[in-house]
Design brief:
The protein has 426 residues and is an alpha/beta fold. It has two domains: 3-298, Protocatechuate 4,5-dioxygenase, Chain B, CATH 3.40.830.10; 318-425, Protocatechuate 4,5-dioxygenase, Chain A (Orthogonal Bundle), CATH 1.10.700. The chain contains 20 helices and ten strands.
Length: 426
């Protein structure tokens, strides 16, 4: 069974990555940054941490305002460094833990958190600045990660209380995962800073010290604070420290402070913190009940004949082919699909099996494999094939046989313009 060994808090300022990438370990002005992360790295190694649940916010790099979620969890097996404008950092990609990520995803949705999930997205300094500091001269940190991206840059954002409650659910989720894992919950962001407007450069070291003390001894006071209170005390961007309440909420009431350090050389008060969890092992009966709770909504759906629930596992295993077909919404991709399928498919890295499935229009085989119907619908529209023709193929019927089972024998499609008019006349 997985166990939460403790919690880590760390700033994620780009200052940290800059210091590492430019080799400033021995520079007196920068050395305190490395000293803090040395302590974190030592604890992670000593406790043999297998997985870090990484709580961070993206800085409008992989997540933009065209679709901005409060909580977006990674369900991928690798997280590459993002290009934030000047090229990506030269650091190793992080390795994801698929099983734990998918389990936590199910648990948080079962506990009525409105989650979103991501794959195929790189991670920026919010994630990589602290994580890259856990590597040493032998290479990057060898463990795996589960990322949780929290949307804190476009108001309104979740409250401190919501973060705390998510942490409570996270603890139950981790402890109900059957694999034997040592897990640490790693919260990033802060401390006090503001990087926009005339208040840019604001710091409040007294508040930072109070925040860290309350986080250890009286987190409820932090839970009861409003976002505006955090902004007044720690700067508008410094309000992101509410993410640390997810970490603290995932720990038991009793923790042991292992390490705490702050250093405010410039714009951000850079912090590192380690709590060791002193809680008891969970009750086996409660764990069993929680596992049943997680699976309750979908129990039995997988046994329905001719039904293939589109789970995170199926989504991840078929992300490449689903992405290829989804891009048929782009005119250039769509035209190349029709005119030069083989070279386009090769450029996108499709396997021979995936090429054959698409080329030979093996509709039911694609669904059984894990291709979403809603990208097959787009493929059909591009090829001038109506939806009922696809449904008929799924059932092993001709179009006429399928339409005979309907009250009205009609054809339709998601195609538009001349394509749908031509289809209607066919």
């Amino acid at each position: 069974m997985a166990r939460i060994i403790g919690g880590i808090g760390a700033s994620h300022s780009p200052t940290i990555g800059y210091a590492k990438d430019t080799g400033k370990q021995a520079d007196p002005a920068w050395k305190p940054i490395f000293d803090g992360f040395d302590a974190v790295r030592g604890w992670v190694q000593d406790k043999k941490i297998d997985v870090l649940f990484m709580i961070y916010n993206d800085h409008i790099t992989s997540f933009f305002f065209d679709h901005y979620s409060a909580f977006a969890m990674g369900i991928d097996d690798v997280y590459a460094p993002a290009d934030e404008g000047g090229g990506p950092r030269d650091v190793a990609p992080a390795r994801g833990h698929l099983g734990l990520a998918q389990h936590i995803a199910m648990a948080l949705v079962a506990d009525e958190f409105d989650m979103s999930f991501f794959q195929g997205k790189p991670v920026d300094h919010g994630f990589l600045s602290p994580l890259s500091m856990l590597g040493d001269a032998e290479g990057p940190w060898p463990g795996s990660v589960v990322p949780l991206q929290v949307g804190v840059l476009q108001l309104p954002i979740p409250s401190a209380k919501r973060m705390w409650r998510l942490g409570k659910s996270l603890r139950k989720a981790v402890e109900s995962y059957p694999e034997d894992l040592n897990v640490a919950v790693f919260a990033t962001g802060g401390l006090s800073h503001q990087v926009h407007g005339e208040r840019a450069g604001f710091l409040n070291e007294a508040w930072d010290a109070e925040f860290l003390d309350l986080l250890e001894k009286d987190p409820q006071k932090l839970v009861d604070m409003r976002i505006a209170d955090y902004a007044v005390k720690g700067g508008m961007e410094g309000a992101e420290v509410i993410m640390w309440l997810i970490m603290r909420g995932a720990l038991s009431d009793q923790v042991r402070l292992v390490h705490k350090q702050t250093y405010a050389p410039s714009v951000t008060n850079i912090a590192t913190l380690v709590f060791e969890d002193l809680g008891n092992a969970p009750d086996p009966a409660e764990v069993a009940a929680y596992r049943a709770h997680i699976g309750h909504e979908l129990e039995g759906a997988g046994a329905l004949s001719g039904t293939y629930p589109f789970t995170h596992a199926r989504s991840h295993a078929n992300f490449r082919i689903n992405a290829f077909l989804h891009d048929l919404v782009k005119p250039d991709h769509r035209q190349r699909f029709l005119d030069d399928f083989d070279s386009l498919a090769a450029e996108r890295g499709l396997t021979d099996e995936e090429k054959d499935l698409i080329r030979d229009r093996k509709w039911i085989e694609m669904v059984r494999r894990g291709v979403s119907f809603f990208v097959l619908e787009k493929m059909a529209a591009v090829l001038g094939i109506s939806n009922p023709e696809v449904y008929a193929a799924f059932r092993g019927e001709t179009l006429e046989q399928f339409l005979a089972t309907r009250k009205v024998p009609m054809k339709y499609s998601v195609a538009g313009g001349d394509k749908v008019k031509a289809m209607d006349k066919a």
